[in-house]
Amino acid sequence: MPDPQFSAFYLPYGDNNGADYTEYQISQSFEFPSVYAARGKWNDLRAQELESGYAKLRQDLLLKANKLFVNVTTLEKQKELQRTRREQSKQVYDQIQELYKKEQVGILDLNKAKIAWIQEQFVVEQTETEIQNVLLLLEKLNGGEPIDLSTIGFHEDIEVESLNTLWQAKMTQDPELRQLNINESVSLQKIKLERNKVLPDLSVGYNHQGISGDNFSGFYGGISIPLWNSKNKVKAAKAGYKYRQSQTEAVTTTLYTDFQEKYNRYQLLLKKYREYQKTMKSLDSESLLFKAFELGELSFMDYYVELQFYRDALDKMLQMEKELYQLKAELLKHQL
Questions:
Q1: For the chain, what percent of residues have pLDDT higher than 70?
Q2: Under 8 Å between Cβ of 120 and 86
Q3: Label partner for 157 (CA 20 to 30 A): which of 85, 198, 210, 299?
Q4: Are 187 and 244 within 8 A, CB to CB?
Q5: Buried residues in 229-248 as b, exposed as e (16+ CB within 10 A)
Q6: Domains, the chain, ranges and CATH?
Q7: How far apart are CA 309 and CA 313, in angstroms?
Q8: What single string gives the DSSP state of each residue in 178-221?
Q9: Is the separation of the CB atoms in 44 and 220 below 8 Å?
Q10: Looking at residue 10, what DSSP letter applies?
Q11: Element at 8 (helix H, strand E)
């Protein structure tokens, strides 16, 4: 309510036969009671609207952190592979050194083996640097506090539920979709508020009047009828509500299309990943190639070219796994 009002009159001049006139009045204006109830509900809905906006910002931040964690987990797996490859390259280099001393291979093969070993060392160091950079980003998102990855844990389960089940859960839990519904409720309540504001404002108070020792006092009451103040405001509120309804429908359709596209891409990638995984597990190509090289069945160049082919396939499978977990994080964003 607005502040109380105080007004006073002292009228000593005029044709009054020496009688002074004084008057003072204390009053308080307020809107019709139903306006306060409508505005209270509107404010509560606005508060929910702000809370859902905060929840969306928090969710976006957690999704970013989740993707970074998937990234660092993939880099750790890559580092372990690269360490094994570095050791294998060192073994090959040592073996070719012995063959060179026995004059069974030339200097070119020795130099190539050394370069391959140096390259594998550099790759490990580069991956370690990338891991540190990602950890710094996670630390920044965590308010500057270091993150112990061992306390987080990583869910290796790569399966997700059906599209319909995930979408129904998203409809009830996702802050962005929930905010759309709240926006509609806010607009609808705005219509009710504007309708109530058409009702007259009220005033109550105390009035005192005095003339040459005589005085009169009593209660004061007033009413103000809003003739033009609320003109077209109800119509504007109705138009705002229709806009919110159309916005909810359009945004929901767009979000569902995007969600469906991600889900289909996930299922296709998962199928391809499983085929890769099954094939790579059955081949054991790197150890077979290394044995063939040790027995002299392959030259160094033949061994190295064949080895790179299988290593590239394994690296590609690891990147597919990374993309799968990141897509899964996006599909389950509403759970964050």
A1: 93
A2: yes
A3: 85
A4: yes
A5: eeeebbeebbebbeebeeeb
A6: 5-335 (1.20.1600.10)
A7: 6
A8: HHHHHHHHHHHHHHHHHHHTTSPEEEEEEEEEEETTEEEEEEEE
A9: no
A10: E
A11: strand 5-11
Give pLDDT tens digits for 45-58: 889 888 888 988 88
User: 190: exposed, middle or buried (C-beta count within 10 Å: 0-12, 13-18, 19+)?
Assistant: buried
Q: Looking up tokens 């319909």, which residue turns up?
A: 164
Based on its alpha-carbon atoms, the radius of gyration of the chain, rounded to whole angstroms, reads 39
Q: Which two tokens stand for residue 279?
A: 């094939």
Q: Over the stretch 193-249, which tens digit does the pLDDT of each residue have?
A: 888 888 888 889 888 888 777 888 888 888 887 777 677 888 899 999 999 999 999
User: Which whole-number Å values give the CA distances from 163 to 12, 172, 269, in the listed order?
Assistant: 86, 15, 15
Contacts 24+ apart (CB under 8 A), 262-265: 262/327, 262/330, 262/331, 263/160, 263/163, 263/166, 263/331, 265/327
For tokens 């609207």, the residue is: 49
For residue 56, CA distances in Å to 49, 52, 66, 147, 250 come to: 11, 6, 15, 23, 19
Residues 160 and 205: their CA atoms lie apart, in Å, by: 67
The pLDDT value recorded for residue 246 is 92
CB of 198 within 8 A of CB of 228?
no
DSSP state of 335: G
Residue 24 pLDDT level (bands cut at 50, 70, 90): confident
